[in-house]
Amino acid sequence: MSEMVAMRDAFIGKLYDFAKKDRNIIFVSADMGAPGLEVYRRDLSSQYVNVGVAEQDMIMIAAGLALAGKKVFTFSIGPFATARCFEFTKVDIVLMNLPVTIIGVGAGFSYDADGPTHYTTEDISIMRVLPNMQIFSPCDSIAAAACADLTYKSSGPAYVRLDRQVVPEIYSNGESFESGFKELRSGNDICIVATANMVHNALSISNHFASKGRKIGVIDLLRLKPVGDDFKKAIMEYKVIISMEEHLLDGGLGSILAEIIIDENLPVRLKRFGLNKYMYAYGRKNIQKLFGIDEDSIIKAIENMH
Amino acid sequence: MEPIEVDELQNKADMLRLATLDLCVGAQKGHLTSAFSCAELLTALYYGKVLRYDPKKPKWEDRDRLFISKGHASPLLYSILKDLGFIPADYLEDFCKTDKLGVHLQSNVPGVENTVGSLGHGLGVAAGMALGAKMDRKDYYSFVLLSDGECCEGSIWEAAMFAGHHRLNNLIAIVDRNYMTATDFTENSVGLTPLDKKFEAFGWEVKKIKGHSISEILSCFEGIRSFRRMTPFVIIADTVKGKGVNLSENKPAWHARVPKIEDAEVWRNEIRTVKGVCHE
To answer: Is the pLDDT reported for residue B278 higher than 50?
Structure first.
């Protein structure tokens, strides 16, 4: 088995392969590093730009490079990649529909000692309001590498949110992620729809119930925007959908599902698990517990469902 | 190369003022005074053999890029683009009425490089374009027209620092230094002086000129095709907001205001009389 790598290194590693053959790929960092980026910088220095701690400038420079014919990937910590420079993304990237992929590292509580300035828990809401912005939220390094492939081949703007920590692989190499979701477990009546790190929690919850002879479905919604029709068909197979996210409830994964259920008039009940406030709290498992999105809390909630 | 007639260009600038006035009066929309303040600057760039462009091929790969960061000067640019044949005349008839042209610039208009309206965007995008040109060993210039008021935006200085660091000598910024913002004079709100020293400190070569003097504007661009500078270049053009019509000059109240249709003739006459322009 190969050594486990962080999602950002998997993404950059895949991008490196493309960039070696395509000199129009430019990586623009706002003073953000990664072990995988060191190799890229060494071998492809002419395709790397560090704008310094200046996220607005990161987006403007990316837009100018894209207008000059480049395919640009920007790199920063989640809240700075999204909220800090939001209006620049709107005007300079989205309104001109430029091929710029914004990479935000630290999805959810993955910087779990850094506090609410670094917790990336509002980025989905912020970015999904932008028309033609694709949003990818992978749960392991194989899916993250696939996002490099999908965004490289895309001709418009995209946002990719990556976990900071090294997490166990869920997927195997060679899987296709074109549909934007994966049904990892099929269930009888209840299905958990999760994204990013919470997919791991969802699987462990499903395993817990499986050991007791109860089948709970798990869907990894990897592409949060756009969500395809196949996903809508998949959730119609269930009576109850549970959403799990390390993200504020307003506008996040649960909101996406609620909107689909209402817009499509689906006969499905939805229960959302996520955050309702900012909190000074540390240690990922501890934070999840404080917000009631840890495995035990959700197992209890499912047990109490009628 | 034929000598450029400064008087002809001045005449052109005033005809463009008249065209801009008609455009804004017709729609009862637009930022006339902000457009008037940069009439000579854009006239010199487009008609003074400074910019490299081809109206028949607006996306020509080797054209110079001119980013208008003060996007509210759109009616002036649209008048120029129509005059040069980038856009058909009927485009202007739809100004602010259909989906073609609005008060701020949109990148889907032939000859317009960027969508802009909110301030503080143009310099960074122009810097990215200049860097892209260098990566591809292209010899086009990236020009950007800034308002002085937008130099209060931090993003301008992020971009200025970036351009200075990367020694983007294919980047030329022009600041329309009319000393006015939407509601006041710049030095009464948050003073920008000394603007030249600020840019110098960020690694730029600076030239201060009279921004309504065609000859002074043109003198800034001598020799640019041989890339004699090692740094980005900023021209701080001393201008008057509302230039050309006395009652609108230096009057904050005229920001984003347009004379009524019945009052417009006074404005027209003043532009014609003061400058001796023969309209039509």
So the answer is: no
Domain limits for position B208: 6-275
First to last CA, chain A: 43
Contact residues, chain B to chain A, C-beta under 8 Å: 65, 106-107, 113-118, 120-121, 123-133, 135-136, 142, 154-155, 158-159, 161-162
Say if B64 falls within a structural domain. Answer: yes
The shortest CB-CB distance from B118 to any of A59, A64, A87 is to: A87
Q: How many Cβ atoms from other residues are within 10 Å of residue B169's Cβ?
A: 19
**pLDDT, averaged across chain B:** 94
Contact B46, B80 (CB under 8 A): yes
Total domains present in chain B: 1
Residue of B nearest to A56 (CA): B155
Rounded to whole angstroms, the Cα distance separating B280 from A64 reads 39
> Does B268 map to a domain?
yes
Two tokens at A158? 């995209």
Q: Give me the amino acid identity at A250.
A: D
Give the integer Cα–Cα distance in Å for A186 and A205.
Answer: 13
Band of pLDDT at residue B94, cut at 50, 70 and 90: confident
Report the greatest alpha carbon distance in chain A: 60
CA distance A72 to chain B (A): 11
Q: Quick check: A54 pLDDT over 60?
A: yes
Q: Tell me the per-residue pLDDT of A186-206, one tens digit each, with 9 for 90 and over.
A: 999 999 999 999 999 999 999
Domain membership of residue B1 (yes or no) is no
Domains (ranges, CATH) in chain A? 7-162 (3.40.50.970), 181-303 (3.40.50.920)
Kindly report the nearest CA distance between residue B269 and chain A, in angstroms: 39
Q: Count of residues for chain A? A: 306
**SS3 (DSSP) at A242:** strand
User: What was the pLDDT predicted at B89?
Assistant: 87
Tell me what the mean pLDDT of segment B26-55 comes to: 96
Helices B39-47 and B74-84, interaxial angle, to 10°?
A: 30
The DSSP line for A178-216 is TTSEEEEE--SSEEEEE-TTHHHHHHHHHHHHHTTT---
pLDDT for A269-287, tens place per residue? 999 999 999 999 999 999 9
Give the integer Cα–Cα distance in Å for B162 and B231. 11
> Amino acid letter at B261?
I
CATH for B141: 3.40.50.970
